Predict the structure.
Amino acid sequence: MKQTYSLCVVAFLFLISTSISAQHKHNQRYHSINGNYYKTFYQANSLSYDLFDDYEYDNRFGSYRFLPTAQSIRYNRVDGLFVGLGSDFTNQHSEILHIGGVEFDGFIGYSTGQKDWQYRAAASKRFGQWLMFGGILTNSSTTDDHWRTGLSENSITSLVAGYDYHDYYKAEGYGVFTELELGKFISIGASYNYTTYSTLQTNTEYSFFGDGNITRINPAIDATTDIATQESIGLKLLLNKKGYTRGIITNKLLVQAELSDAAFNSDFNYNKFEITSLNYIKLDQHTLFKMRLMAGSITGEAPDFKNFALGGIGSLRATGFKFYRGNRMLMSNAEVIFGDLWDYDDGELEIDGLYLTLFLDSGWSDFVSSNSNDPFSGFESFGFNTLTHNIGAGIGTGFVRLEIATPLSGSEGFTSLWVRLNPTF
């Protein structure tokens, strides 16, 4: 049984890689014929919104940095209002200073909730078009939940409606990183990181309208401690980072690993592996099919905040927030969008007027006891009958989207209504 599931996972990765490889060859031939008339699938959360021009979720597919993105102006229940100066780490091309080919970016700011100064600073140097080295210093609150809902969207819902859908922790430390570009479609990143993580308290309950969930306790980084120091190696493989396409099919694949096992001097010994695949198919001039596939595995004993959690906004949309937790995870989000979607004058995918969407969310996560360091082990308890399924529909414009989701028979959850500003895939 173990061998069967391992083969299934390998087959899944092979199919995704084969699809991207075939697209690479097709686009390479198209590029050689048409010169610079290459069309880029604009990945600002998969659709172009007037209010949100900056990369948010997809910064995970940008230049390699181990720590998640952060913004210099934000509002949430642990920072209150954070006001900073500098560049946001939502844009891989951002910089505040350029000296002798070295690019500097970062921010410094004050958290009114924590009543402290925070900063993040990075410097990087490119050698030609294919190799980059850099370093980063940080002492700032951050979150791993930006894949659920974008940073700007979460700040707005926290301040206006009192709904904060992220959990936070403090990260203080340093790292060095490098990225190797192998043509237009393959990117390999690596980093060494020394980071002290600490628990943050909820510091504000203020919002313009309603109480929402902003009074929710911000969870500890682990049930056994509020501070953990980790030494780790980060690795990343990225296929089709910029989303090159001819307009029919677009695939992007991200494979990440965080290695912090017994070879390092760390408070927790574990290895964490994640795979994310974004897939878009233009069915006709008014119909788009998109699917996000995610898989994850943790070997060893990771702190609680590193474990996987499914449920709620941007995840299983008719399931309680982070209801399913574990050290193994599988999830898919599939949507069909009907509307006037296509405008390639600027190489961007845009919405023109109203659009409708139908979606299906499926997911599974569980804690698996295993002494194996094989990330493919531990999926024996997974079966299609263990998946949770949510279905729903939505209506939106280029700015706002309403979604209603309900669990399928046999799945945990409840009918939910979501107001979204920038869906994150």
